[in-house]
Amino acid sequence: MGRYITISTKVRRELKEEAERLGIRISEVLRQALEEEVRRRKLEELEKRLERMKDALERIDVDRIVRSIREDRER
């Protein structure tokens, strides 16, 4: 899974103690939250790129492309 690094954060002592009392694996929760946030931001980035490309994509004639592919296969 690649190399790991350590990331630290500060939380209220009471929160950490309560999490430990409840058996919460803090590092796992933080790792999952960070992974989810990265996924969400990447998706947002892709949506923005798609929006910028929308005009160009709308001008693509899909039927013409399909015909060209079929013609090439028949040759």
Q: What is the approximate shape?
A: elongated
Which spans of ≥5 residues are poorly predicted at pLDDT below 50? Answer: none
**Helix/strand structural class:** mainly alpha
- Report the strand count: 0
Which whole number gives the mean pLDDT? 93
Beta-strand fraction estimate: under 5%
Helix content: over 70%
Count of DSSP-assigned helices:
3
In total, the number of domains comes to 1
Provide structural commentary.
The protein is an all-alpha fold. 73% of the residues lie in helices and 0% in strands. It has one domain (13-74).
Outline:
This protein is mostly helical. It contains three helices and no strands.
Short descriptors:
3 helices, mainly alpha, elongated, about 80 residues
Topology record:
Elements: H1 13-21, H2 26-58, H3 62-74
